[in-house]
Inverse folding.
């Protein structure tokens, strides 16, 4: 039984490391910020969860397992937030290649609101023209 | 289990090299930010794999710190990037005479 759990833990650790390697390959090969973020978020959540699960199986003292659960919870909460911030900043500073996009649902909304997305243009303030 | 450790080390090392390549090449700040994030998660995966292979539980608090540090770093850098970081040089702006300032309304 111990061998089985060790094999399971080893498999999970290797899966996590393989996902990290895939993120590295995608980061080098992909063309713009959004697609690189798509590659980069794989090891941040799934890869780290796999490695943490493997470590939890191998360590199996309750203090360590709880701390690993804490790591997984932090990562699941914080990775979408930082991804959102980076993607929003990429759109605003025009680091998105719009010829590669299949659908851009933000642009019609911004145009309807009278905001030109791009560098240096702020949304017009009330009470100040020109 | 030592075989797993060796293979994981090789995979993570290649991944870190590729990420460092993007970190050096990256055309914009955001590319470097994303690759720094991935480098931190490579670090976290390495620490977790070390803990799993050696059954050494002293590195687990370091894992907590690393996972928090990644969030704080990328969030603060993404927050303080200047919004009009130019990708290509801007055309020189012609100076226009200033319009007389109107009295400001109440501040929001």
């Amino acid at each position: 039984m111990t061998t089985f759990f060790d094999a399971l833990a080893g498999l999970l650790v290797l899966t996590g490391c393989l996902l990290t390697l895939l993120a590295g390959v995608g980061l080098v090969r992909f063309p713009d910020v959004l697609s690189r973020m798509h590659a980069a978020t794989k090891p941040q959540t799934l890869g780290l969860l796999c490695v943490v699960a493997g470590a939890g199986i191998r360590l199996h003292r309750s203090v360590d397992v709880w701390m690993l659960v804490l790591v997984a919870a932090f990562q699941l909460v914080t990775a979408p937030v930082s991804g959102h911030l980076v993607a929003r900043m990429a759109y605003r500073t025009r680091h998105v290649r719009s010829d590669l996009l299949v659908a851009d649902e933000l642009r019609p909304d911004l145009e309807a609101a009278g905001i030109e997305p791009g560098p240096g243009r702020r949304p017009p303030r009330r009470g100040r023209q020109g | 289990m030592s075989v797993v450790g060796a293979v994981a080390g090789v995979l993570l090392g290649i991944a870190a090299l590729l990420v460092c390549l993007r970190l050096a090449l990256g055309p914009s700040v955001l590319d470097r930010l994303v690759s720094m994030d991935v480098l931190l998660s490579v670090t976290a995966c390495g620490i977790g794999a070390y803990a799993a292979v050696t059954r050494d539980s002293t590195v687990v608090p370091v894992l907590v710190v690393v996972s928090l540090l990644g969030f704080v770093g990328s969030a603060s850098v993404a927050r303080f990037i200047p919004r009009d970081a130019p990708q290509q040089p801007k055309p020189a702006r012609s100076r226009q005479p200033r319009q007389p300032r109107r009295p400001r309304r109440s501040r929001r």
The helical segments of chain A are 2-29, 33-59, 62-92, 106-112. Confidence is low (pLDDT under 50) at residues 120-124 of chain A. Residues 123 and 129 of chain A are 12 Å apart (CA to CA). The radius of gyration of chain A is 21 Å.
